[in-house]
Design goal:
single chain, 145 residues, alpha/beta, Barwin-like endoglucanases, six-stranded mixed barrel, 17% helix
Length: 145
């Protein structure tokens, strides 16, 4: 009888330990993987960031962005993981030199190493609709007050 109770208690302890999470431990990042800016990063006007960009459109059209604005796929806006909402940036498609100015009003992208999701209207302005993905240079023109 005592042996069964001991086994039952041991089993409960083992199961609780196996189901517990690792709260408070830092996550392990892939070595050598470039880090995306965090929400606490500091940015400055004139700062330049380069990397791949994509675009999003009709599946989000009319929905609220992370900033609370209604997304207009034909407007000139973009999603960035950390730039403050209301930041004005210039985006240059490095494949063709075309440029557009957009306002950051959403968060993302959440795919791979992408640094920016442009609205359909902005992607059209820099001629990246067909490819869907392009290397870009972002220049911060004006940070919100």
């Amino acid at each position: 009888m005592h042996k069964n109770i001991f086994l039952l208690i041991s089993l409960i302890i083992i199961m609780n330990t196996a189901c517990s999470s690792k709260l408070g431990l830092p996550s392990r990042e892939e070595p050598g993987a470039p880090k995306k800016p965090s929400a606490t990063s500091t940015f400055s006007e004139g700062q330049v960031i380069e990397g791949p960009a994509s675009y999003y459109g009709s599946n989000h059209h009319g929905r609220r962005t992370a900033s609370g604005e209604i997304f207009d796929m034909n407007g000139l806006s973009a999603a960035h993981p950390a730039l403050p909402f209301g930041t004005l940036i210039e985006v240059e498609n490095l494949n063709n030199g075309r440029k557009v100015q957009v306002i950051i009003n959403d968060r993302g992208p959440f795919e791979g190493q992408r640094i920016l999701d442009l609205s359909y209207g902005a992607a059209k302005a820099v001629h990246m609709i067909k490819s869907g993905l392009a290397p870009v240079r972002i220049t911060i023109l004006k940070l919100p007050e």
